[in-house]
Amino acid sequence: MDTKVKYPDRVTKGEDGVWRWTGVISRAENRHAISVTLKVVGAMCLFLIGLSASMRDRQMLLVTVLACGGVMAVAGAVCAVADRMAANGRYQAFEITDDHMRWVGVGRTDFRYSWRSIRSVRIFEEEDVIEIRQLLGVMQIYVPHEDFALVKDLILARVSGSADVEYV
After folding, report:
1. Which of 2, 47, 103, 111 shows the greatest Cβ crowding within 10 Å of its Cβ?
2. Tens of pLDDT, residues 118-127
3. C-alpha angle 153/154/159, rounded to 5°?
4. How many CA atoms lie within 13 A of 126 on its CB side?
5. The CA-based dihedral angle spanning residues 153, 156, 158, 163, taken in that order and rounded to the nearest 10 degrees
6. How far apart are CA 153 and CA 140, in angstroms?
7. Full-model pTM
């Protein structure tokens, strides 16, 4: 996160005209990502086990089953750590300017999406999440519940008329 700038819990307009806030990643969102990850890894393992079984080589099948079991154990452990981190509340900082939307990460990491490049906006009102999409990327914007309508209006006022808006 940018150490020179204070990111408040509520959406606030700074003296420089930039809207700033921190959003908490919802644990439900994190669990959905974990579920998808485990399903994908499990499906790949089932495919490899099926492929090995079709070759009718018992030793290869045993090695494949053991390797897939190890991969699933590691994936499960990584997902358990990610879920534990989400339980403590992971925060992300956001900025809205007239030119772009910015996600501010830890250290020097940040992503900027120019308003002109936004192709679609998906609004998840129940989760207080807004998703903006470019050609090659998606940014999920986490907003405090009390400020969701304000941020939604700020974003919709800035995206070009060609962007699709979908309420989910």
Report:
1. 103
2. 999 999 998 8
3. 95
4. 4
5. 180
6. 16
7. 0.65
